[in-house]
């Protein structure tokens, strides 16, 4: 059965007003002392992932009385908050990740921004955080990237990573939804997420800890899900693994996701399987784009429960020919090894992963035709 369009995808496919029409939604307060040319050159010549930040950030505040207000692009600076601030105690927080790309002609674009806008509100609904209008989301992105255009790097694997987030900023220790929130977008000129480039990653399959469970927050992009993935990640790193694969919390048998990335399995018959969105899996923008891309090429994509035992058996028998993980930050990366207490298999690296990487990054960088209308011009 072909992929059924999700609500998120429907929202993401809505027409987006042109950048000039939304840009004034956030007022720009220029930085009086932006980073010097020397600092700028130093940071841009050695791009890590999420290490350095640009000159400005977008910022708006919500209160019950005023709604979202004080919408500005302001100098990037530390925040000062009372120790009683709710997010520090109960983790009422959501975030997003998207990128601004510089095309070969110098123009600057982003990719399916309404997917992020819609998912931010979906995550917000789960965490009792008030919604932000798509116009405000787009204004913050366009305003920030225009203000910090010099920080959009050029070239394959490089982008200005944009991190929108909302957190509970009321100072109050009672357990209830906050009456005040901050929306911020930080921008980080970034190179590849994995420093070892297009090398396959080694993945530990986690059977003791789960990142999310039925009725939990697994399909919301909230810090708590990532926090719960850190201990297993530390343990796996200590054993030499790059990432952790989480299984479903109810049966401990089917693959959920890697914590920061969705998973795909390529079968010998040419079909591709990815775990269905079961409520515990983040509905990734890259996941959605890959499904559409593959289906448009005639590939049969199956979204269904994916038993880890079947995958391991399939790797051993040759029925599974490739596995890869995907996300906005990492794009697409091959899984080269899958291990747990009772198995340790090498997964072949094949052409499908590279093909998808080339197509997606090609579209994002304006080098491959954007048949889907995913690219949005910022300037
Ligand atoms: C992304 O892929 O953008 C993510 O949010 C994953 C991770 C960096 C948190």
What do you see in this structure?
The chain is built from 10 helices and 18 strands. It is α+β, with helices and mostly antiparallel strands and 379 residues long. It is globular, with a radius of gyration of 21 Å. The strands form 2 sheets. Strands 1, 2, 3, 4, 5, 6, 7, 8 and 18 form a 9-stranded mixed β-sheet that branches. Strands 9, 10, 11, 12, 13, 14, 15, 16 and 17 form a 9-stranded mixed β-sheet that branches. Strand 15 and strand 16 form a beta hairpin. The chain starts with 6 loop residues before the first helix and ends with a strand. Bound molecules: 2-OXO-4-methylpentanoic acid (COI).
Q: Major β-sheet, in short?
A: 9 strands, mixed
Question: Low-confidence parts, pLDDT < 50 over ≥5 residues?
Answer: none
Small molecules bound in the structure, each named once = 2-OXO-4-methylpentanoic acid
Proportion of residues in helical segments: 25-40%
Could you report the average pLDDT, rounded to the nearest whole number? Answer: 96
Shape: globular
Q: What is the radius of gyration computed over CA atoms, rounded to a whole number of angstroms?
A: 21 Å
How are helices and strands ordered from N to C?
HHEHEEHEEEHHEEEHEEEEHEHEEEHE
Strand content: 25-35%
Number of strands: 18
- Tally of separate helices: 10
Short description:
The chain has 379 residues and is α+β, with helices and mostly antiparallel strands.
């Amino acid at each position: 059965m072909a992929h059924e369009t999700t609500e998120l995808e429907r929202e993401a496919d809505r027409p987006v007003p042109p950048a000039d029409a939304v840009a004034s939604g956030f007022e720009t307060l220029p930085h009086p002392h932006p980073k010097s040319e020397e600092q700028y050159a130093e940071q841009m010549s050695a791009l890590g992932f999420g290490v350095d930040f640009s000159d400005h950030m977008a910022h708006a505040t919500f209160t019950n009385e005023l709604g979202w207000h004080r919408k500005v692009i302001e100098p990037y600076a530390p925040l000062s908050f009372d120790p009683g601030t709710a997010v520090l105690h109960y983790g009422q927080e959501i975030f997003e990740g998207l990128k601004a790309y510089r095309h070969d002609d110098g123009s600057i674009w982003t990719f399916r921004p309404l997917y992020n806008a819609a998912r931010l509100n979906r995550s917000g609904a789960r965490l009792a955080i008030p919604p932000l209008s798509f116009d405000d989301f787009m204004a913050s992105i366009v305003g920030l990237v225009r203000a910090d255009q010099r920080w959009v790097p050029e070239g394959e694997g490089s982008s200005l990573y944009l991190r929108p987030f909302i957190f509970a900023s009321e100072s109050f220790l009672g357990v209830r939804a906050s009456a005040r929130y901050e929306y911020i977008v930080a921008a980080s000129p970034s190179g590849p997420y994995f420093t070892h480039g297009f090398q396959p990653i080694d993945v530990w399959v986690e059977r003791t800890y789960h990142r999310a469970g039925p009725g939990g927050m697994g399909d919301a992009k909230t810090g708590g899900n990532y926090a719960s993935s850190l201990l297993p990640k530390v343990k796996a790193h200590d054993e030499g693994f790059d990432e952790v694969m989480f299984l479903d919390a109810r049966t401990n048998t089917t693959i959920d996701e890697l914590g920061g990335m969705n998973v795909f399995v390529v079968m010998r018959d040419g079909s591709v399987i990815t775990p269905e969105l079961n409520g515990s899996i983040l509905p990734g923008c890259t996941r959605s784009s890959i499904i559409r891309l593959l289906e448009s090429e005639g590939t049969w994509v199956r979204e269904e429960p994916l038993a880890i035992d079947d995958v391991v058996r399939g790797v051993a028998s040759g029925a599974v020919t490739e596995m890869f993980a995907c996300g906005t930050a990492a794009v697409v990366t091959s899984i080269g090894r899958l291990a747990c207490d009772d198995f340790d298999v090498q997964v072949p690296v094949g052409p499908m992963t590279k093909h998808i990487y080339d197509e997606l990054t090609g579209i994002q960088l304006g080098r491959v035709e954007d048949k889907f209308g995913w690219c949005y011009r910022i300037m």
